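Re: beginner question about structure tokens

> Can someone show what the tokenized structure looks like for a real chain? I only ever see the sequence side.

Sure, here's an example I had lying around. Input first:
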Amino acid sequence: MAEVLERKSTVRTHGQTRRPEIRMGCRGSASVKLLALAGMVIVVGNVNAQVFIVQPSVHSRLTYTDNVGATENGESDWIAEVTPAIAVARDHGRITGNLDARLRSVMYANDSDRNTAFVAMQGRGQVEAVEDVLFVDMSASVSRNNRSELRGRGSEDFLSTDSDNETRIFSLGPRLHFRLGAGPEGVASYRMNWFDSGAGIVSRTVENTRGQLSDPQAFGRVGWALDYSCADTRYDDVRDSELSEEIARATMFLHVSPQFRLRAIAGHESNEYSVRSGESNSITGAGFDWNPTPRTSLSATGEDRIFGRSYYLDFNHRRPLSWWNVSYSRDITSSAETDGSVFDDPAFASLFDALATEVPDPFEREALVRQQLGYPGIGLFDTFVTNNYFLARTLRGSVSLVGARNVLTLSVQRSERTRLGEPLVSDPRDDLSLFNDVETRSGTVSLSHRLSPAATLNTSLVRSYSEGSGTSDAETRRTTFSLGVSSRFGRRTTGSLIYRHQRAAGTSDFTENILTASVGMQF
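And the corresponding structure tokens:
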């Protein structure tokens, strides 16, 4: 979908929204690859001239569980964890971004074979190599989350530390902004994504190349935009596994009023994802952007695509003490298409900005919003990992109510993923290698209540249902309840005590009670 081009870049950093990055890359782009190399050199040349906010810390955690294996007849165990960490954030200057990196060392009292140590991290940023012209985007994510919606622990469970579940995503690429005289503005970018994981996941490289040119008000109320993108995916050690996708769009804009804009879209696309015979089709569509007030926005687009209808909807509404978000999308995607940053989620971004006054520390605020929405403590907000391209239909909705001492959040999500083509490899951890379709529905209620200036009570309830269908069928229902108290003992020391009850029934069948005490210290 062609959008109005912006002069500056966009990365969301802690406490500040910058314009969305544009990802690119295609086969045979030799000149663009040289540009990427030049951008890396510029990064090295400038990084020492910048000043970063650095927050080192160390966290320790002691956990008792009565079902360490998350099985029907599990055994109890004590688990100790020591985690040195470093958090970095910068939202001004030529270098901006954020990084959270942790070295988790996990030790089991009764089963030392489970002992492990690994790096968990998430970061993204940009370097403004040439002012307002050349930017270098980069991101990195390493996490361990259960890759299956139907087996084992929930994807957000911090005890999912199996090395087979580790997922690593890195990306790097330049982005060039330009203007043709006093008229159209353009963006050309190239981005390399490297994706690999633990057992069963095939390493792959995705090259994204994109070019945009637009003049949204070329003829007064009428404007135009052109958008071309090409993505090439190469799987390591898999024969005949190179896949390509090309999409070209032309968009006409009509500014009905300063608050309302219409879009008409026409284009063409082709891909090799085994969507249907022919693998190419024209694109037609329409959409609108409506901003009736500074606190309310609604954007919607529908298109006729190679796989059928494609949809995109995003609604945000902010009131003095409440924040509302609804989003819906239907499109082709893959696990390597995004770095999975929580700040890419409109609900997360909206609540994070809304709590800036109540929780000024950006790292504490991110932890609170993750807890409110039921996301993992670090890493991706969508932990679904598969070797295959798939058609995803995702609906998310959330509302947060903020009081003098409370933050109450209700969120719901429904996702349906349909595999395109035959499974690339057979992997019992990959739901889309076992099933043609995987559907997940979940609801979360979270409350954070400030007991005192130093202590907070946190509780949440998560209900979910997952179903896999195809040559075989499976389903799992989960219920997770948690209740805990966190407190600040000093200016740099915090602690918490949390109880969690988890129950799964169906393909995965187990009950677990967990009690966790933790202490953290900043330096």
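Each token stands for a local structural state, so reading them left to right follows the chain. The CA atoms of residues 201 and 300 lie 35 Å apart.
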